[in-house]
Hints:
nucleotide-binding; six-stranded antiparallel β-barrel; 5 domains; globular; EC 6.1.1.7
Amino acid sequence: MKQLNSAQVRQMWLDFFEEKEHLILPSASLVPVNDPTLLWINSGVATLKKYFDGTEVPENPRLANSQKSIRTNDIENVGYTARHHTMFEMLGNFSIGDYNKVEAIPMAWEFLTGEKWLNFDPELLYVTYYPEDNETKEIWENIDGFDPTHLVAEEGNFWDIGAGPCGPNTEIFYDRGEAYNDLPEGDPENYPGGENERWLEIWNLVFSEFNHLPDGTYQPLPNKNVDTGMGLERVVSVIQDTPTNFETDLFMPIIKAIETYANGVEFETAEALKVSFKVIADHVRAVSFAISDGALPSNEGRGYILRRLIRRSVMHGRKLGIKGAFMSKLVPVIAEIMGDFYHELRQNMAFVQQVILNEEDRFHETIEAGETHLMDIIAELKSADKNEITGPQAFQLYDTFGFPLELTEEIAQDNNFTVDAAGFDVEMEAQRERARSARSQEESMSVQSAVLQTIDFDFEFVGYEQLSTNGTIKAIVINDELHDQLPARSEGWVFFNRSPFYAEMGGQVADNGAIFDGPDMLAEVLDVKKAPNGQFMHKLRTLEMPLNINQSYTLTVDRQARIKTNQNHTATHLLHKALKVVLGDHANQAGSYVGPDRLRFDFSHFGKVTDEELKQIASIVNYYIENAVDVDITEMSIDDAKALGAMALFGEKYGDVVRVVNIANESIELCGGTHVTNTNEIGTFKLISESGIGAGIRRIEALTGQAAIADYQAKEQLLTDVQAQLKVQQLDQLAHRIELMQEELKATHSKVESLSAKIMQQESDNLFNDVQTASDITFIGLKLDNQNMDGLRNLGDVWRQKAASNVLVLAAAQDDKANLMVLVDDETVAKGLKAGDLIKPLAKQIGGGGGGRPQMAQAGGKNPAGIDQMLSEIATEITNLMN
């Protein structure tokens, strides 16, 4: 076996498969692009689904990559096991309808055992296969140098994730020797393929041979594929002979850097604290890559995962004695280890550090709040003569404040308290179940279309230069079957040899228009999409006449719609530039919609864009429009484009020759869409809205041209109507008039409140007459009309002054809602009855919930009709709480 570092292993993999005529793909972003089924890119094949399910044909059917991936199903196991990671690198080689088992298995064996490559001892390699897959078994048995007694049939070796491609797989294991044996001899898992540390799985080869159809049946795939994956961290641990992945050169420099902040605690000697070193090293690596790829911490989606990873790391840092921010200081170490291959990490290093530092500082404030909350819980339990923190309370500390159970237990122990760990586990499992239910089906693929795969001919898109052309029908597809005719008054997909219609791509919608024969319109163009082999396929609805294969027709794009789309598309380029100028270089495009009606632009950013920033952004876009800048569009090599400073849009794949859209040498982007020739053609740009749509992603919607003018006119008419209603002579006096009206309304409201308080004071003797008793506690329950919380609070003040009872329950219906307030005097709180406890069961009667302090709590509900029933339950609930 050769002694190699991780970078050498990665490069050796890519070199090997390049020699085997594979196209080497760069690692895609961890943030999926145009794939709502995935939260993260979680495998090497995840970015290649369009090839595997047949929606696109690759330029080379042989592909290989080293793909950074994130999986978050087992975050709690990271650091405690030898091989769990949140982020890992998957070395993969793939065949899209090209070679299969007969070539894939010998290639794997050559890479593992060849003297030029890893040079593993063949005697240390074991293989599992699917029992019904005799072909794989025979191939392995005939591999020169492989011991057939090392072949193990394994029932689980069939890769199937639901609808789409599936098939048997074969896994390769490395025997690490008796020293790594962690199971007794008779254990059922003590074999190659079992859950043990001796035989380590290093490579999985999946042979996609079947379509798993939605009805549950399996059919042979039109194109059989190969999908293999080798975890870089695992194979490096074998080569470097380390007990876990964490002792390899991928992690040890990070761990050594952590030691410098750990007040003398060392990884090698602190056995009980090794988990904390591992957790931090794993999490900071994952977070650094994810932020570099455009993800940002937040309270939902992938942003919540980043926040959780950072908070877990900070808590483990505290175990090592690290009190201040430290994670951001580890980012340069990660860049040093992996930056030569993942250049984006070095390019974005300062930004990544700043994001992590901001999150660390924010969490340190949260920890203090969590400790305060925990001490409040302990004090409250002490007053109730209890000494156990409940499972839900411990879980709230974990979920809201990031407190791990161990920290809660530690603080509890210092205060002579225990923690209901079993109850905590119940809450944690419930959260996991909710996450599983909400999780998209990861790695889901479409079922291959055999018909679309077969359609292949030379196609020419002429829509950049002309909006009408003649084209000959080369194929007609109806319900996934080829036909020679698209009948009258029917719909189907039609392929022409030439077309001016733009297919939906890159956020730009497809053109619409019509198909003509001379002056006669024969069909409407409803949609246009890119077929697997690159041609444009047109969804047509015929009128009174059919369309026939091999006949020529005139294809005409809706000119007005295209012009409006061009305006909006060029405006998105200007908007992207303006966002980077105003907000910073991190404001990267994360999605877009460009149509004739409007434009929508999604981008990464920390928080809401301020009104002043929005004004600056719109001003910059309109500056370019007003200055009538030519839009220069040129085709050039990808290298020349990069040298020019062209911006490649997030996650897009580009060929050797690219189309560069250059506006004033300021906005330079790779783009295949359609555009205006001069920015002045856009007319004007008007921002409509700015909002958050997910984890660190903001959305701007805007109008251009005549649509923007129409919006201005509508707003102007609205102002004119308001001006007339308020009887204001001059428009510039409108704001002042509204201010005066608000002051008048505020004064009137204050008078009403004052009068209500006086009336309530006068009527309080009558209101507080009906005093009832439950468990030696006196209480009053009142139903009031149309009172808000302020009104209820004022009446509560009168009740306290009069000391009319021990408990007061006030309820009022207001605007189809119910307001509820519970007040308890100090004497009764000392007996153990608290307003916050009493209000919870009462609030359920009105369809709501609430809480508060021991002396006062308030709630809202959606069922005011339940107030009477609720008031009748007061005595029962007091009795329940006091017994």
